[in-house]
Specification:
The chain is of the alpha/beta class and 378 residues long. The protein is 33% helix and 14% strand. The chain has an 8-stranded mixed β-sheet, with helices on both faces. Strands 2-3 form a two-stranded antiparallel ribbon. α1 packs across α2 (150-161) and α3 (180-194) packs antiparallel against α4. It is globular. Belongs to the AB hydrolase superfamily. MetX family. Homodimer. Its main location: cytoplasm. Residues 43-359 form the AB hydrolase-1 domain.
Length: 378
C-alpha cells in the first residue's frame, strides 16, 4: 500500500548562472520527500527524473488513489529503496511543466509568460539547481543519487560536478551521450511540434491554444522507441481493432480509419500526453538530452571525463533496450574501470525495451535492493 505524498515548493531569488551564458532568477523548484532525515543528515537519496516524469516519485496524493508516483514500485517502506532507512528526495527540473518554473510561467523582467523565451537548459544546469535545493535543506552529502534514462544522465553528471557530495551513484538504462539515431528521433518529434499551426513560435499561450497535434505525434514517436519489438508484437501483433468488411483479406483498405490495435494504442497515448504536457517543455528537455556529453570537454575521451568521479557506482541496463542499449552502459563501466573506480553492473535480460526501468522485474528490483542494503546503507 502506498503512503501519502505532499508536494513542496522552494523559491530562489538569487540568479542561477546557466551553461548557455544566460541566467534565471526568482524561480521555484517543486519537490517531495519521503522518509526521515537522520540526525547526521547522511541518509539522503536524490532521485532524478526522466523526460515526462516529475518530483512525484512515490506515494499517492490524498484523495487521489490512482496518483502513484512514477517509481512507486521502487521507492517506499520496505521497497528496494527503503524509506524506512533512507530520506528520499524528488525534485522537478527547471523548465518542466509539473510545478517548477517553466515556459508557462511569468518572466520576472517582462511580466509576460516566458514561452519560447525560457532559457536553454542542460543536464548540468539541473544538477546545479538540485544542489541549491539540497543546500537549503541542509544536506551537504548524499548517500546516493539515482535515476533512469535522462535521470541516469543527471546522476552521472552529479558524480562529475559534485564528486565530494555523494557516496554512490545508481545509473539505470542510461548513456554517456545520445547517439545520432536518438538525436534524430528527438528532432523529428520536435519538428512535429514546431510545425503545428497552433505552436505560434512557442508563444501559443497568448493565443489560448495548444499545439496538440504536434504533441500527439511527438509522444507516438517516443513511445515506439520505449518499447521493444517483442513487446509490441506480443501486445498487439497485427490484430485488427474491430470487425472488418473484406472476409478474404480482413481489411477495409481505408486510408483514414484506425485499423490495427497498435494504431489505436499509439493514438490513445498521444491524446493523453497532449492534455498534460507542455510543448515548450518537450523541446527544452529533448534538447538537454541531445546536449549532454561530458566527454566533449575531454576530446571525446569518456575515461578522462570520468576521472573526476569519486563515488561508488551501480549501473543497470536491459537487453532489449535499443534506445539506451547495454553497450552504452558498458561504455560507462569501462570508463570507470579505466580509472579504477568501484563499479557494480547488472545487465537484465528483459523483454520490455527502455520502459523496463519503470516495471516490476523482480531481478531488477532485487539488484537495486541488494545494492542499497549492502553498499549504500553500509
Amino acid at each position: 500500500m502506498s503512503f501519502l505524498a505532499t508536494p513542496q515548493f522552494l523559491t530562489f531569488d538569487e540568479p542561477l548562472a546557466l551553461q548557455s551564458g544566460a541566467s534565471i532568477r526568482d524561480y521555484t523548484l517543486a519537490y517531495e520527500t519521503y522518509g526521515t532525515l537522520n540526525a547526521d543528515r547522511s541518509n539522503a537519496v536524490l532521485i532524478c527524473h526522466a523526460l515526462n516524469a516529475s518530483h512525484h516519485v512515490a506515494g499517492v496524493y490524498e484523495g487521489q488513489p490512482k496518483s502513484e508516483g512514477w517509481w512507486d514500485n521502487m521507492i517506499g517502506p520496505g521497497k528496494s529503496v527503503d524509506t524506512n532507512r533512507f530520506f528520499v528526495i524528488g525534485i522537478n527540473n527547471l523548465g518542466s511543466c509539473f510545478g517548477s518554473t517553466g515556459p508557462m510561467h511569468t518572466h520576472p523582467d517582462t511580466g509576460r509568460v516566458y514561452g519560447a523565451d525560457f532559457p536553454v537548459m542542460t543536464v548540468e544546469d539541473w544538477v546545479n539547481a538540485q544542489a541549491r535545493l539540497l543546500d537549503a535543506l541542509g544536506i551537504q552529502q548524499l548517500a546516493a543519487v539515482m535515476g533512469g534514462s535522462l535521470g541516469g544522465m543527471q546522476a552521472l553528471s552529479w558524480t562529475l560536478q559534485y564528486p565530494e557530495r555523494m557516496r554512490h551513484a545508481v545509473v539505470v538504462a542510461s548513456a554517456p551521450n545520445l547517439n545520432a539515431e536518438n538525436i534524430a528521433f528527438n528532432e523529428v518529434a520536435r519538428r512535429a511540434i514546431v510545425t503545428d499551426p497552433d505552436f505560434h513560435g512557442g508563444h501559443f499561450y497568448e493565443h489560448n491554444v495548444v499545439p496538440k497535434r504536434g504533441l500527439r505525434i511527438a509522444r507516438m514517436i517516443g513511445h515506439i522507441t520505449y518499447l521493444s519489438d517483442d513487446v509490441m508484437n506480443e501486445k498487439f501483433g497485427r490484430e485488427l481493432r474491430e470487425a472488418v468488411v473484406d472476409s478474404a483479406t480482413g481489411y477495409r483498405y481505408s486510408t483514414q480509419d484506425v485499423e490495427f490495435q497498435i494504431e489505436s494504442y499509439l493514438r490513445y497515448q498521444g491524446d493523453k500526453f497532449s492534455e498534460y504536457f507542455d510543448a515548450n517543455t518537450y523541446l527544452l528537455i529533448t534538447r538537454a538530452l541531445d546536449y549532454f556529453d561530458p566527454a566533449r570537454a575531454f576530446g571525446g575521451q569518456l575515461s578522462a571525463a570520468l576521472a573526476q568521479a569519486r563515488c561508488r557506482f551501480l549501473l543497470v541496463s536491459f537487453s532489449t533496450d535499443w534506445r539506451f542499449s547495454p553497450q552504452r552502459s558498458r561504455e560507462i563501466v569501462k570508463g570507470l574501470l579505466d580509472n579504477r573506480r568501484d563499479v557494480s553492473y547488472a545487465e537484465i535480460d528483459a523483454p520490455h525495451g527502455h520502459d523496463a526501468f519503470l516495471l516490476d522485474d523482480p531481478r531488477y528490483l532485487n539488484v537495486v535492493r541488494t545494492y542499497f542494503e549492502r553498499e549504500v546503507a553500509a
